[in-house]
Design brief:
The structure holds 2 protein chains of 2 kinds.
Chain A: E1 3-9, E2 13-19, E3 25-31, E4 36-41, E5 50-54, H1 56-66, H2 74-83, E6 86-92, H3 104-107, H4 109-113, E7 116-123, E8 128-131, E9 144-150, H5 151-162, H6 165-169
Antiparallel strand pairs in A: 1-2, 2-3, 3-4, 4-5, 6-9, 7-8, 7-9
Chain B: H1 2-25, H2 30-41, E1 47-48, E2 51-52, H3 60-80, H4 83-87, H5 91-116, H6 119-130, H7 134-143, H8 150-178, H9 185-213, H10 222-242, H11 247-259, H12 264-288, H13 295-323, H14 328-337, H15 343-354, H16 361-381, H17 383-395
Antiparallel strand pairs in B: 1-2
Helix pairs in contact in B: 1-2, 2-12, 2-16, 3-11, 3-12, 5-6, 5-8, 5-13, 6-8, 6-15, 8-9, 8-14, 9-11, 10-11, 13-14, 13-16, 14-16, 14-17, 15-16
Classes of the chains: A alpha+beta, B mainly alpha.
C-alpha cells in the first residue's frame, strides 16, 4: 500500500502526498476555493516534474474514473465478487418494469429481497441525485438506482427492474 | 451635492476596476496597482500637457468605504486564523518562524531608529518592513506552481506566524498611537500591557466565548446571518474604540473569536466579497493621499529600506529554513519568496498616519510596497538561478566566501 501524507497549507488549502511503490510521489493540492492541483515528483526529486490544474468538477470526474466507477479493470471485478459476495450496481428502471410506480416500502426490498438502495440518480444530465432514499421513494422509469446486495439477490433485482411484465408472468 | 458624490464614487470604482483588471491580466498582485492608480488620479495627480488628471476627490464616502475595508481585512485575518492551526505547525516551524519574525522585526527597528531618529516611527517602520504580504506570496506560489513543494508548507507556516505577530504588534502599536506619540514610558506601558493582556485572553479564551456565541448564530436565513455578522463587526469596532483600542484590532479580535465557532466557514464565505470590494477602496484611497512630488526626501530612505529588506530577508529566510531542517536549495526558495510586502505595510502606515505619528511614512510605505511588489516576483522566479550561483561560489571556496546573497 502507498503512504499518504497530509499537510495543512494555511490560506491555500490542503496537500496530500502519496508515495507510490515505484518510489515516485504524487502530490494533490486541494485549494479552499475548489481548484485541484496534481503534481508529479520523480523518485528523489523535490521539485515537481509536471503538474495539472483542474476545476472542482473536472477533478471529480477524473477522480471517479480513477476510482473505477465507470469501468473496472477486469482483475478487480473478479476479485471483488470472489472476496466479498457484495455487489454494488447502477441499474436503470425500464419503462415496462413491474416495480415502476411502486415504492421501496411496499415492495419490502430490504426484508423480502435483501437489497439496499443506496442512491437514486433522477436525472443523469442535470446530475440530480437522491442519496439514501426513504421507503416512500417510488421507482420511476428513467431513474438510475444504485443498489447493494449479494450477487444472486442483485441479479434478481436487476431482472425485476429491467424486464417486461409479460416475462414476469412466466415465473 | 449628491449627484457629484455618486459621480466621484463611480469614477473611483472605474479606476479601481481598471487597476484590478490590468493586474489580473498580467498576473500580478492588485495592491501596488491600486496604490499607483490612486496616486495618478487623486488630488495630487500629475498634469499632462496642462490638463490635470485629478479626477477623483477623497470624499467622506470614500473614506468610509476604505475604513470598512481595513475592518474587513483584519476581521478576515482573524477568521482565517485558528489556534489549532498554529498548534499543528510543529516545533521545527516554531523555531524557524520565531527566529525569522524576531530578526526581521529587530532589523526594522534598528533601521527605523537610524533613519527616522525616534522610537515611535522606528516601531512603525519595523512593522512596515517586517511583515510579509501573505496575499502576494500565496499568489506567487500558485503562479509559480510551487504549491506542492516541500518548502511551501514552511513558507505558509511562517505566514501564520506573522499573523500572530501582527495581532500582538498592532495591539502595542495602537497603545502607542493612542498615547499620541508621547514618549513618557510610564504613560504608555500600562495601556499597552492592558491591551496586550486583553488580546492574549481573547486568543486563549476564544473558544469559550465562541461557544457562547455559537448557538445564537445558528441562523438559517442568509440575509439575517450576514446582517447580524456585519452589525457585530461594527459594534465591536465602536466598543473597543471606547476603551482606547484601535477599531481594526476589535475587528481582528472578533474574527479570532468567530474562527473558533462552527460558523467560521460561512462567515468567511459572506465576508470575502465584501473584503475584496472595500479592501480595494482602501488601497486606492491610500494612493489618493500620496503626493509623488513629496517623494524627494523619502526616495533614499525607501531605497535603503528596500535594499535592507531584500538582503536581510534572504539572510533570515535562509537561517530560518536551515533551523527548520531544510536543505540549502529549499532554503533559497523560501528566502527569495517571502520578500514581498503589501497589505500589512499599507495598513500599518495608514494607522500611523491617522494617529499623526509622521507625515513622511505614507509616501515611504507606498514607494516601498511599489518597489518590492515589482522586485519580489522576479526574485522568487529566479530563486533557482540564485541557488546555482551560490553553489558555484561555494565550489570556488578558497576566497573568503562572499556570495551573492549571504551578506547581512
Amino acid at each position: 500500500m502507498s503512504i499518504i501524507k497530509e499537510a495543512e497549507l494555511p490560506g491555500l488549502g490542503k496537500k496530500f502526498e502519496i508515495s507510490l511503490e515505484n518510489g515516485d510521489r504524487v502530490a494533490v493540492v486541494i485549494h479552499d476555493e475548489g481548484t485541484r492541483e496534481v503534481y508529479y515528483f520523480p523518485e528523489g526529486e523535490d521539485d515537481p516534474l509536471s503538474g495539472v490544474t483542474m476545476t472542482d468538477q473536472e477533478a471529480r470526474q477524473v477522480g471517479s474514473i480513477i476510482s473505477g466507477s465507470f469501468y473496472q479493470p477486469r482483475v478487480l471485478e473478479k476479485l471483488e465478487t470472489a472476496v466479498a459476495e457484495l455487489k454494488i450496481e447502477w441499474l436503470e428502471v425500464r419503462d415496462n418494469s413491474p416495480v415502476a410506480g411502486k415504492n421501496i416500502g411496499e415492495l419490502g426490498l430490504r426484508k423480502n429481497h435483501s437489497i439496499t438502495v443506496i442512491a437514486v440518480i433522477e436525472d443523469k444530465r442535470k446530475g440530480k441525485t437522491l442519496i439514501n432514499p426513504g421507503p416512500s421513494y417510488v421507482f420511476t422509469p428513467g431513474h438510475t438506482v444504485v443498489a447493494a446486495g449479494t450477487k444472486d439477490k442483485m441479479k434478481q433485482f436487476e431482472e425485476l427492474l429491467q424486464k417486461s411484465p409479460a416475462e414476469e408472468d412466466d415465473r | 451635492m449628491s449627484p457629484n458624490m455618486i459621480l466621484n464614487l463611480g469614477l473611483a470604482f472605474t479606476f479601481i476596476s481598471l487597476a484590478i483588471y490590468i493586474s489580473n491580466k498580467i498576473k500580478f498582485s492588485s495592491i501596488p496597482f491600486l496604490i499607483l492608480v490612486g496616486m495618478l488620479v487623486g488630488p495630487h495627480a500629475p498634469e499632462v500637457s496642462g490638463i490635470s488628471l485629478a479626477l477623483v476627490q477623497r470624499t467622506e464616502s470614500i473614506d468610509l468605504l476604505s475604513r470598512l475595508g481595513v475592518l474587513l481585512m483584519l476581521f478576515y485575518l482573524g477568521l482565517e486564523f485558528s489556534a489549532g492551526k498554529l498548534a499543528a505547525t510543529g516545533p521545527a516551524l516554531f523555531k524557524g518562524g520565531t527566529v525569522y519574525v524576531g530578526l526581521n522585526f529587530v532589523r526594522g527597528l534598528v533601521f527605523g531608529r537610524l533613519f527616522f531618529q525616534n522610537w515611535p516611527e522606528a516601531f512603525v517602520v519595523a512593522g512596515i518592513t517586517g511583515i510579509s504580504s501573505s496575499a502576494i506570496i500565496t499568489k506567487l506560489l500558485v503562479d509559480l506552481k510551487r504549491t506542492a513543494n516541500p518548502e511551501t508548507e514552511f513558507i505558509l507556516g511562517i505566514m501564520v506566524f506573522e499573523d500572530v505577530f501582527l495581532a500582538i504588534y498592532l495591539s502595542v502599536l495602537s497603545g502607542l498611537l493612542f498615547s499620541g506619540g508621547h514618549l513618557a514610558a510610564w504613560d504608555i506601558i500600562p495601556g499597552i500591557a492592558l491591551i496586550f493582556l486583553f488580546i492574549i485572553s481573547i486568543i486563549v479564551l476564544g473558544r469559550r466565548i465562541g461557544a457562547l456565541l455559537e448557538p445564537r448564530l445558528s441562523i438559517k436565513s442568509a440575509e439575517s446571518f450576514v446582517v447580524i455578522v456585519f452589525t457585530m463587526l461594527l459594534l465591536t469596532a465602536v466598543l473597543v474604540e471606547t476603551i482606547h483600542i484601535a477599531e481594526a484590532i476589535g475587528a481582528l479580535l472578533l474574527g479570532l473569536v468567530l474562527a473558533e465557532t462552527v460558523h467560521s466557514k460561512r462567515v468567511i464565505q459572506f465576508i470575502t466579497p465584501m473584503r475584496d470590494l472595500f479592501g480595494a477602496v482602501f488601497f486606492f484611497a491610500f494612493g489618493l493621499e500620496i503626493d509623488y512630488r513629496l517623494f524627494g526626501n523619502a526616495v533614499y530612505i525607501t531605497l535603503a529600506a528596500v535594499l535592507m529588506t531584500v538582503l536581510g530577508n534572504i539572510f533570515t529566510g535562509l537561517l530560518a529554513s536551515w533551523l527548520a531542517g531544510y536543505k540549502a536549495r529549499r532554503g533559497f526558495n523560501v528566502a527569495f519568496t517571502i520578500i514581498a510586502r503589501g497589505e500589512f505595510a499599507v495598513i500599518v502606515a495608514s494607522l500611523a498616519v491617522t494617529a499623526g505619528v509622521s507625515q513622511v511614512l505614507p509616501a515611504f510605505a507606498a514607494l516601498y510596497v511599489l518597489i518590492l511588489a515589482f522586485i519580489s516576483p522576479v526574485l522568487a522566479k529566479q530563486s533557482r538561478s540564485f541557488y546555482q550561483a551560490y553553489t558555484r561560489v561555494v565550489d570556488l571556496i578558497p576566497r573568503p566566501g562572499v556570495s551573492s546573497g549571504k551578506e547581512n
